[in-house]
Amino acid sequence: MSRSALDLWVGFFVAAGFAALLFLALKVGNLSAVNMSDTYTVKARFDNIGGLKVRAPVKSAGVVVGRIESIRFDPTEYFAEVALALDERYRFPRDTFATINTSGLLGEQYISLEPGGDAKMLEAGNVIKKTQSAVVLEKLIGQFLFNKAAEGPEQKK
Q1: Which residues are 59's β-sheet partners?
Q2: Angle, CA of 14, 33 and 96, to the nearest 5°
Q3: Long-range contact pairs involving 17-26 (C-beta distance under 8 Å, separation at least 24)
Q4: Which residues of the chain have pLDDT under 50?
Q5: Would you state the pLDDT for residue 32?
Q6: pTM of the predicted protein model
Q7: In this predicted model, what pLDDT tens digit does every residue of 79-99 receive, in sequence order?
Q8: Confidence at residue 103, expressed as pLDDT on a 0 to 100 scale
Q9: Helix/strand/coil for 95
Q10: Beta carbons within 10 angstroms of residue 54's beta carbon
Q11: Is 33 helix (H, G, I), strand (E, B) or coil?
């Protein structure tokens, strides 16, 4: 094999390696899942969003139906307002329930939508009124330990 052919193959494999790294970086950053379809934005208010991040998925029945568009803190009412960009193909009743869940024990957080029974559907700009905040594992462990300490040592007979 000549020197120039060898250099060509090395260059090809280096370029393929860079392309694979770029693909993995986009996958990890949720940037490759850019959806070009039309969306509508609704908002939901939570007391605690835990580790929820922008571009995290919004799921219903395990299917991704949208992405989190933005998260902001309301300094007057002290809650987090999350804007959800939902795919136009999916419509939800106005009494839909939004919860913050975690994939697995320590996985990424996402918003789960559980449809209600209202005949009217959510429109762009509406606010989902029924929400459940994130369960913070550290807070639960702290409560458990505090309760155990408050019980005191057990009496032996």
Answers
A1: 64, 112
A2: 160
A3: none
A4: 32
A5: 47
A6: 0.68
A7: 999 999 999 999 999 999 999
A8: 84
A9: coil
A10: 12
A11: coil
